[in-house]
Amino acid sequence: MSTFTLHDHTTAPNEAKPLLEKSQKAFGMVPGLHAVMAESPGLLEGYQVLHDLFLKSSFTADEKTVVWQAINVEHACHYCVPAHTGIAKSMKVSDQVSDALRDETPLPSVKLEALRTFTLAMVRQRGEVDAKQVDAFYSAGYDQQNVLEVILGLSQKVMSNYTNHIAQTPIDEPFKKFAWKKK
Predict the structure, then answer these.
(1) What Cα–Cα distance (Å) separates residue 39 from each residue in 4, 11, 46, 52, 76?
(2) How far is Cα 66 from Cα 101, in angstroms, rounded to an integer?
(3) 93, 98, 131, 161: CA torsion to nearest 10
(4) Residue ranges of E strands in 74-136
(5) CA 32/CA 66 separation, integer angstroms
């Protein structure tokens, strides 16, 4: 397998340079994922747009973390699980929620567990969930908007998880302390 370039402002394609500047401003650094994605400016831009849209979703910080981490763990993403552990901390998500997601143990609330269950059904069944699964999601207090927002989060995570698998993106220094491996 070839080694993917970790671009910076000097090596990135011209179309990607403003996108890397946006990443630098947002995160105080250019995350390795963004540095890899810069090779394809359209991918990086699409990822950034989906990320911004998911942040504006109706989900709480805990719920966003459940969607992101359920997918990251299911996809066994060596990069995104540690990164989103750090992001969860910055969003004031409890360690109890983060640890349950990382360790695939029960979440502290029935509603969050229903969100993880539905998100994983969407991933594992490639969107082919049945009426019983959707009804269980609704019974937990979610609605049609939330179904579609899970799809939005899933779209974002497919882009990042697949990129990290193929590129073997190195974990950024601030997230190394949250290194993770699927059990």
Answers:
(1) 9, 9, 13, 20, 23
(2) 7
(3) 110
(4) none
(5) 22
Query: How many angstroms separate the CA atoms of 137 and 131, rounded?
Result: 10
CA pair distance 65, 29, nearest whole angstrom? 21
Residue ranges and CATH numbers for the domains of the chain are 58-178 (1.20.1290.10)
Per-residue pLDDT of the chain (183 residues; tens, 9 = 90+): 569 999 999 999 999 999 999 999 999 999 999 999 999 999 999 999 999 999 999 999 999 999 999 999 999 999 999 999 999 999 999 999 999 999 999 999 999 999 999 999 999 999 999 999 999 999 999 999 999 999 999 999 999 999 999 999 999 999 999 999 998
Question: Among 56, 14, 59, which Cα is nearest to 39's?
Answer: 14
The token duo for 129 is 């969930």
CA angle 78, 23, 84 (to 5 degrees): 30
What is the rounded distance in angstroms from the CA atom of residue 134 to the CA atom of residue 147?
Answer: 8
